[in-house]
Specification:
Number of strands: 10
CATH class of the largest domain: Alpha Beta
CATH superfamily of the largest domain: Flavodoxin domain
Helix content: 40-55%
CATH topology of the largest domain: Rossmann fold
Low-confidence stretches: 209-224
Number of domains: 2
Largest sheet: 5 strands, parallel
Strand order of the largest sheet: 2-1-3-4-5
């Protein structure tokens, strides 16, 4: 299977030199179709895609900005694709934020992302210190190894569908006043007959945030299937995550961020993540903002659940709406069509 390598031409020649070395190693022996300009993005539907960004020292690539514009304006540009990202920078900043922005644009253009889809190289490569130590190699070799491993996963990954998949829905909202809950209720009506749905509320102090236990302690409790701090995470959420085929995070926009309880949930997943990866579990989200910023919250879900915790990101994983007063979301123009599309996308992702 060939890989479509989307590699925008760098603003300066030196900015792409290290990335070129990484790609040469990662893609050795693979059939590659390379895209360097925004005008060349056509005809990629159904392909395996690797977005490789040479950011230089400013975190900006002008040709990538032109590509980003096309991805945002043309929702079907990457329909049926499965992909990952390699982002290379000359400094310590911008690689991850650029990756999250690119990932959301790719996803809304129809591209799924494998779990842990990002390999990033900061200027110093200090972000590879642990991997280099584990592999017994230098930082650059660890970078090369990670890029090749990602390319192989992108090339060979397929998400397993099931006859009657299990969906875990997590929220921290009031059923009576939440626009996010209103939207989910409509989606549930359309998926409930074909899926097993479990909802868990994380409100009113039921969930303590991660307290940053030492690595060995977290690993020990993770291997036992629990967490030192116990509570609803150990007793309800961990077992539900283990059995679920997909998670749906109901994510109202609080101050341009995920709610405290959903953030705590992602943090506390670390203990379970020490024991197992979540490549075979999908994540969806419904984001409702009172005024603006839904894309900011969606990128946080991508960063926390897909890039960090390894959940599979289906195409068009997020329903993003703007509504303020209670009940307003269900009165938005065209909302029923978007809800039906979101529910159908879930069923097509999960069900045989």
């Amino acid at each position: 299977m060939s890989i479509a390598l989307i590699r925008p031409a760098p603003d300066s020649g030196w900015a792409g030199q290290r990335l070129e070395d990484i790609l040469r190693y990662a893609l050795d022996g693979k059939e590659i179709h390379e895209v360097r300009r925004a005008e060349e993005l056509d005809g990629l539907e159904g392909r395996r895609v690797l977005l490789a960004l040479p950011l230089g020292d400013t975190g900006v690539s002008l040709e990538y900005m032109r590509m980003l514009s096309r991805l945002r304006k043309e929702p079907g540009l990457l329909r049926g694709c499965t992909g990952g990202l390699i982002v290379d920078g000359a400094g310590e900043l911008y690689t991850k934020s650029a990756a999250a922005e690119g990932a959301l644009a790719m996803n809304r253009a129809g591209c799924a992302l494998v779990g842990r889809p990002l390999v990033e190289g900061t200027g110093s490569l200090v972000n590879f210190a642990v991997q280099a130590k584990n592999l017994g190699v230098g930082l650059m070799d660890a970078y090369r190894h990670a890029a090749r491993e990602l390319a192989e996963r992108v090339e060979g990954f397929s998400f397993l569908k099931k006859e009657r998949p299990e969906i875990l829905v997590l929220h921290a909202s009031s059923h009576h006043t939440s626009n996010t809950m209103d939207l989910w209720a409509q989606v549930r009506e359309q998926v409930g007959d074909q899926c097993v749905v479990q909802e868990i509320g994380l409100r009113n102090g039921t969930l303590s945030d991660c307290s940053g236990c030492p690595y060995t302690m977290c690993l020990h409790f993770g291997e036992q299937g629990g967490c030192f701090y116990g509570g609803v995470m150990r007793d309800e959420v961990y077992p539900a995550v283990r059995s679920a085929d997909a998670l749906v995070l109901l994510s109202p926009n609080y101050n341009d961020a995920l709610s405290a309880n959903l953030t705590a949930f992602i943090n506390r997943l670390t203990a379970l993540f020490r024991q197992t990866r979540f490549y075979d579990k999908a994540v969806f989200t419904i984001v409702v903002s009172g005024y603006s910023g839904g894309d900011v919250v969606a990128r946080q879900v991508i960063a926390g659940m897909n890039m960090n915790k390894s959940f599979y990101l289906p195409p068009n994983f997020a329903l993003i709406e703007t509504a303020n007063n209670p009940g307003e979301a269900l009165a938005l123009p065209g909302i029923q069509q978007r809800l039906e599309g979101f529910a159908q996308n879930m069923l097509e992702t999960l069900c045989v």
